[in-house]
Amino acid sequence: ASCAAENITVVYGMEGGSISVNCTYDPWQQRWREKSWCRQLEEKRCDPVVSARPFWLPFPRKRNGTTSIRDNIHQGVLTVTMEQLKKQDAGLYQCKSSSLGETRSLRKVQVEVLTAVLETQMPEEPSAVQGTSSISSAGSFSAFSIIAVFLAVKFMVALLIFITVLSLSICNSWKKRETEQEEPSWDEQRVLPFDAAWDGISPSWGSTA
To answer: Which intervals hold domain Ig-like (predicted)?
Structure first.
């Protein structure tokens, strides 16, 4: 957000978090100028926090504590990053460029640090909801267990009935086969009496005069 009347940009950050601010400038006109990030304590007093390295150094990023600054002279962007924010970090800051005693303000930034909401301050209703969901889950699991046991018992009973019927069928088949082997056939019953009668009668060929 920005305050149009004073040309101040408002940046919000969470306590313990971080924020990044980009300050743009004309790379051709202000490439040689020194850039810095300062904190506005009074109307005409801005205490420097961190200054950017000169453009000819190979490492353009510089850090001071939890605040770092990086100067991209090719794109004309000065990036300031504040990490591990605290409540005392809130306040008015400026991106500035200076050369030979002349100072220009690139951007004014109002940093606001918000306090994070602790989990212990949350209402206890979610715990109750969680307890209810746990109870319902336990009830669903118990019902599923009962159904599974019932189906298993039913399957075992059906298996026992099948085995019993199969055993009875096999026993009846064996008994029938043994009975057929012990009893003579109809042809033998018809032949045996005839043979016995024939063996007991001897023909006599006599003549009487």
So the answer is: 15-112
